[in-house]
Design brief:
The chain is mainly alpha-helical and about 400 residues long. It has 18 helices and no strands. The N and C termini lie far apart (about 65 Å).
């Protein structure tokens, strides 16, 4: 009887914990939904009115101007640290120098119109301004450092992809620019942009965004406030710990924002939260591996060192800014939900969940399919098929196509 009661009590506690996590995650989703939808619409419009391939010609020459342009281009583009890799590889192949490619690789995952919007919603206007500014300056510093050390990519003429961003109806070379612009009307472009936003853009980030929401809910329920206050409250040591925690994680800029908000409510300083927001989206094991193959060891070391140093410097500066202004970021996070009416937040959250059904199911189905193929392949495939040659594997890894918003 006692054993039964203990088991029943454990089951009830598990159910209570699960319900609390879902409730906290739902509240965060409601607060963020309207701003995420706004960011998605902006991302879709960027796809039809600003294509990264069409501006690649500006990123091939100049040790400084190409870096500034690449960093500026990367700020609004809503791509995560792995999603940006095909775009960066495409820019590199079209003639962008290593510094411009490095700047784009840093600025893009650290920022984005969607993450700026959700940062404003959850963390307030100060962090919404500091975050893209810090991303731009970090990307610029890394790109210039790479170009000063690498002169091989200077003086090359890029090959620009001018194909139609709507449906690739033409390559942009056989027709005049005026005719090229008249192929699709303004409202047709708007319609395609919205379709692209709610299908491909959200499809690429839906799973990670929802995982980020669940992690934020778990942090809110599971971790006591005193733990964050004691070890991650403020100071350079808390930022170093946050840097170590965030570097290997795979998380996009949008999904990292609610997690940072949950940490702030637990007592983490604004500066330590900014370190997480800058380092988390820009670094993970997968992207660093690809970086090593695309840009080489030197560029990868510059990439990591610049992100680490810049994140800590900006973190220390942000703590001083909030201290000087006498503003509590924790209070800002608490008040963020009051900006949008509850019924609009609810409708936005429901819409995001409905839009997430198809991409999440596709991801789960794909994972099971790959697992089955790996199991069957390990049993039946000869060694030459199961383990490709180094040259073949390298060709595969470099053959990344660019299907990226821009």
């Amino acid at each position: 009887m006692k054993e039964f009661l203990r088991n029943e009590s454990a089951r009830l506690k598990s159910m209570e914990f699960f319900v609390q996590v879902i409730v906290e995650s739902w509240h965060l989703l409601m607060e963020a939904s309207v701003y995420v939808l706004f960011g998605m619409v902006a991302a879709g419009l960027l796809r039809v009115f600003l294509n990264p391939n069409s501006v690649a010609k500006h990123l091939g020459r100049g040790r400084f101007t190409s870096v500034f342009k690449a960093a500026f281009l990367g700020i609004p583009v809503p791509l995560c640290s792995c999603g940006v890799l095909p775009a960066a590889v495409s820019l590199k192949k079209q003639g962008a120098n290593s510094g411009a490619t490095t700047a784009f690789l840093i600025a893009t995952p650290e920022s984005g119109v969607d993450s700026i919007a959700i940062t404003y919603a959850l963390l307030g206007p100060i962090m919404a301004v500091i975050r893209p500014v810090a991303a731009f300056l970090t990307a610029t510093a890394a790109g210039i450092a790479e170009n000063l050390l690498d002169r091989k990519s200077q003086g090359r003429f890029p090959v620009v992809d001018l194909s139609c961003p709507v449906d690739s109806c033409c390559d942009g070379k056989e027709c005049s620019p005026e005719e090229h612009m008249r192929h699709h009307g303004f409202f047709q472009k708007i319609g395609f942009g919205l379709k692209y936003a709610f299908s491909e853009v959200w499809g690429d980030m839906a799973g990670w965004f929802l995982v980020g929401m669940l992690l934020a809910g778990i942090i809110t329920v599971l971790i006591p406030d005193r733990l964050f206050t004691a070890y991650l409250g403020s100071g350079i040591y808390s930022m170093l710990i946050m840097l170590l925690i965030s570097t290997p994680l795979y998380i996009c800029a949008t999904a990292s924002t609610p997690i940072a908000a949950a940490m702030i409510l637990k007592g983490v300083s604004p500066g330590a939260a900014l370190v997480f927001l800058l380092a988390g989206p820009a670094t993970n094991i997968t992207s660093l591996t690809v970086l090593l193959g695309v840009l080489g060891k030197r560029a990868t070391v510059i990439y990591m060192c610049t992100i680490a140093i810049s994140a800590i410097c900006f973190g220390l500066a942000v703590d001083r800014i909030y201290l000087f202004l006498g503003t509590s970021l924790k209070a800002t996070v608490i008040q963020g939900s009051e900006m949008v009416p509850a019924w609009i937040q609810f409708a936005g959250a429901v819409l995001l969940l409905l839009l997430s059904v198809k991409p999440v199911w596709r991801t789960i189905k794909g994972a099971f399919t790959r697992k089955q193929q790996e199991v069957s392949g390990s049993k039946s495939s000869p060694p030459s098929e199961a383990f490709p040659a180094v040259g073949e594997e390298k060709d595969r890894s470099q053959g990344v196509s660019c299907s990226v918003s821009g």
